[in-house]
Amino acid sequence: MSYEVRLQHFEGPLDLLLHLIQKNEVDIYDIPITEITDQYLGHLLQMKQLNLEVAGEFLLMAATLIYIKSKMLLPQLESGEEEAPLEDPRLELVERLVQYKKYKQAAEMLEYHQDRFQQQFTSHPQVLAEEPSSLDPEVGLFQLLSAFYDLLRRTEAESSLAIEREELDIHQSMVEILDHMGQERSVTLISLWGEVRSRLRMIVIFLALLELVRQGILKVRQDGHWGEIWIDRAE
Amino acid sequence: MSIIEGLLFVSPTPVSVEKLKAVLGSLTLSEIRDYLRRLQSVYEERRSALEVKEIAGGFQIYTRPEFAPWIGKLIENRPARLSCPALETLAIIAYKQPTSRAEIESVRGVDSQKAIRTLLERGLIRVLGRKDVAGRPLLYGTTKRFLEHFGLKDLSSLPSRTELEEMDLGKEA
After folding, report:
1. B contact test, residue of A116, A120, A145, A146 with most B CBs within 10 A
2. Distance from CA of B102 to the nearest CA of A (A)
3. Which domains does chain A have, with CATH numbers?
4. CATH 1.10.10.10, applies to B84-166
5. Which residues numbered 40-59 in A keep a CB inside 8 Å of some CB on B?
6. Residue B65 and residue A102: Cβ atoms within 8 Å?
7. Structure pTM?
8. Which H or E element spans position B53?
9. For chain B, which residues make up each domain, given as ranges?
């Protein structure tokens, strides 16, 4: 008989902290750091036990909490004559939490409006469809990297006992890419790697492609979101 | 007034007062607004299923929410609900625009790349330009689509910070 433990999902470390603060019914402006840190770490431990991936941000927050806790435990040093009282080490965290809470409430408000408005109909309903994204430079690069990463993963790892010294010449690769294109105006991204199986060589070819794009010799485009990626000569 | 009603009925998108004037010619903008208000009163008096809604800088006729159970049976209800990360990111952009990915991530405390992409793909946000600092990061803002999706009149109809705090949505944080 299997026993399933379900752990509440949190959007991020701030979300988790807000939950703990509310659950413990403590004042957000006077957080009992020790208690909250213990519970926070306890939650992370549970996540690990359930084999859930703990994102880096959660770990960073754990370190931050421990740091704050340690600062609060240290005895307050006697300050000089006119020195202002030492700042509450929790202050920065509290400000972040308050700000996050504000926007979380704003998000809930938006959701409320969304749900309510979806109860209203009109004669020509507009569907929230996916639009082909146009000319967003960040998206283009991301897609390119995704495609390349997929290709790398699909390629079997080269198990060679002989350690060769490969000449990793990007310029040479650039020339080879242009040769490969020959008279064609466009080729597919995949075709650039042809039968190459060495991961190092594949990466060099990819870097050569990026350099050619950077120099404005070639351009990259994609059919729709998950379509084929094409390399064009830039005219 | 009936002419305006007819125009609103056939329009696939919200109609601005200016556009109405372009069709009607002889009326002033405030006269048109007056008719729109009167039309809404008529609907309310007859307890009509319809209402005149001011949305995304224009006007459009919608069925009232109370009638959703019946209308939902006739028409396939568009699900189109946004995820929590998307809503959070969107809320931040809506209030702080123009804003960069770094600003968004400093509020949320988590990576927001995926959420931003989703919102861009759905046309709810767009790139407004680049920030004039090192790295020249992209700046984002909401679109007209955003107003239409949430049934909002304009950006100023978003509740202010204090109103947000006072709002009781019956949900737990």
Report:
1. A120
2. 14
3. 13-75+85-117 (no CATH), 137-233 (1.10.10.580)
4. yes
5. 55, 57
6. no
7. 0.67
8. strand B50-55
9. 2-74, 84-166
